[in-house]
């Protein structure tokens, strides 16, 4: 009987076991052996469910830092590294906002590393076990989920710790682990990492064909297609990105103003939500959560209670059409907000949690797919169809919108701007800045970024790449550090 031991990145204390009781119940570091695992659909699904739990668990780094609440925390942090989000006071997430968190000696540099490698170890166990035993009708859907989760985890790691794909395929990215081992590996190239990500997603899409998931907490074919769309856009594979984005968004409703404006707190009420996590009284981390940090209206959270408001950048607010109902998601600098008179200009009222502490995490929305498809079509030379796709979502948000007459760079800028407006606070802006080679420019005339956040960083700076955490440097002799 061969006992499974999970170890993906040496003894750098990457994998702690104090996440939550339901995660521990599905931790592969148990007495279950490979033969039992591969032949038990229940055990396999238990492991996958443990991964989903890990994605929304507080304290993956065993720290008491209230930014460390899983995948949604990583998305929130990166938005605070962009041009588009301001924070009113220096508090949690300040190390993201001022770019100190990316440094190897800052504990935040470990957050993405732990969050995703922690889940990769489990996906590898599932993938290797099933492939060894043989794919059957009883395990193919679990395998498909595992491939998608591994791909997403490596994609996130690559975007944090590596450069962009286009023009950098030979540069160093992150180590690839596809099996259990005790040797810390060297960093693979960007090309190698993305090749594995893409292959995993293509396998996932094939395996998940016909899968009907019980809840949106689990990944199905549409979500795997959405991941492929994001990855293909990063890789410059524009026809594939457009095709995958179109496939991903089928069957989801864009909703109306009431649906869009309900606070993004409920995975089932948000009509275009594709994937997320259900938070309730048994698994909430309360203030150490996304709405705790971003809901300016909740006086029980950090944002609303302590005045650590998360606001929209003035320039982006000014670009929202007056007839676009998404503008109401931010406090007008002219009229204020009569419902929340205490909030300052530009404060967001997009995220609201009427439950106070049990708001769900929404990781992915179908609305993003429209902008990916439109950009990919435009970059593929099909601007006419790009405008059709862009108009489909814009007309759902702005009654006065007319199909764009822009072309070339102006059309791409329009698509990107509307994407930033639609997905403000949802973890897209900084990754797109990095992909598109855009500078951080917060110190400008009339800026509403506070003094401690008025940074200007040129496009393509090394500061858009996170350093490898000190814990990994100390324990893995094969690792090479990124520039400061």
TrEMBL record:
Domain SusD-like N-terminal span(s) in chain numbering: 22-233
Subcellular location: Cell outer membrane
PROSITE patterns: PROKAR_LIPOPROTEIN
InterPro entries linked to this entry: SusD-like_N, SusD_RagB_dom, TPR-like_helical_dom_sf
Signal peptide limits: 1-22
Pfam families from the UniProt entry: SusD-like_3, SusD_RagB
Cellular component terms (Gene Ontology): cell outer membrane
Record carries keyword Membrane: yes
Primary location: membrane
The entry's keywords: Cell outer membrane, Membrane, Signal
RagB/SusD domain residues: 348-484
Entry-linked Gene3D superfamilies: 1.25.40.390
Family statement: Belongs to the SusD family.
Protein name: SusD family protein
Organism listed in the record: Chryseobacterium contaminans
């Amino acid at each position: 009987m061969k006992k499974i031991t999970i170890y993906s990145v040496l003894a750098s204390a990457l994998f702690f076991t104090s996440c939550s009781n339901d995660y521990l119940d599905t931790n592969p570091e148990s007495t279950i052996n490979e033969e039992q695992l591969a032949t038990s659909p229940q055990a396999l699904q238990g492991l996958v469910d443990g991964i989903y739990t890990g994605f929304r668990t507080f304290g993956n780094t065993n720290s008491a830092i209230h930014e460390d609440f899983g995948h949604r925390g990583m998305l929130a942090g990166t938005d605070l590294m962009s041009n588009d989000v301001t924070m009113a006071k220096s508090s949690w997430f300040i190390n993201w906002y001022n770019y100190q968190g990316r440094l190897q000696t800052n504990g935040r540099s470990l957050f993405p590393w732990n969050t995703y490698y922690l889940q990769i170890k489990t996906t590898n166990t599932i993938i290797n076990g099933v492939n060894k035993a043989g794919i059957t009708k009883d395990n193919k859907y679990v395998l498909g989920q595992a491939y998608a989760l591994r791909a997403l985890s490596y994609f996130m790691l690559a975007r944090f710790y590596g450069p962009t794909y286009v023009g950098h395929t030979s540069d160093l990215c992150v180590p690839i682990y596809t099996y259990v081992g005790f040797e810390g590996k060297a960093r693979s190239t960007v090309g190698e990492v993305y090749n594995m990500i893409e292959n995993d997603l293509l396998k996932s899409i094939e395996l998940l064909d016909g899968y009907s998931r019980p809840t949106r907490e689990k990944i199905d074919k549409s979500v795997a297609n959405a991941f492929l769309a994001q990855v293909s856009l990063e890789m410059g594979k524009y026809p594939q990105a457009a095709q995958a984005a179109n496939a991903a968004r089928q069957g989801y409703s864009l909703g109306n103003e009431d649906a869009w404006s309900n606070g993004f707190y409920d995975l089932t009420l948000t009509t275009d939500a594709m994937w997320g996590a259900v938070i309730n009284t048994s698994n909430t981390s309360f203030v150490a959560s996304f709405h705790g940090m971003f809901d300016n209206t909740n006086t029980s959270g950090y944002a609303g209670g302590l005045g650590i408001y998360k606001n929209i950048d003035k320039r982006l607010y000014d670009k929202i059409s007056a007839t676009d109902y998404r503008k109401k998601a931010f406090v007008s600098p002219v009229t204020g907000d009569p419902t929340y008179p205490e909030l300052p200009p530009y404060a967001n009222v997009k995220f609201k949690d009427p439950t106070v502490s049990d708001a769900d995490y929404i990781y992915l929305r179908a609305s993003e797919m429209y902008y990916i498809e439109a950009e990919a079509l435009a970059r593929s030379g099909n601007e006419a169809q790009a405008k059709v796709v862009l108009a489909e979502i814009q007309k759902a948000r702005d009654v006065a919108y007319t199909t764009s007459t822009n072309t070339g760079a102006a059309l791409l800028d329009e698509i990107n701007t509307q994407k930033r407006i639609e997905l403000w606070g949802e973890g897209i802006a900084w990754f797109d800045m990095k992909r598109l080679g855009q500078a951080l420019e917060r110190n400008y005339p009339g800026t509403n970024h506070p003094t401690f956040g008025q940074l200007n960083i040129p496009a393509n700076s090394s500061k858009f790449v996170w350093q490898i955490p000190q814990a990994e440097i100390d324990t893995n002799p094969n690792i090479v550090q990124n520039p400061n």
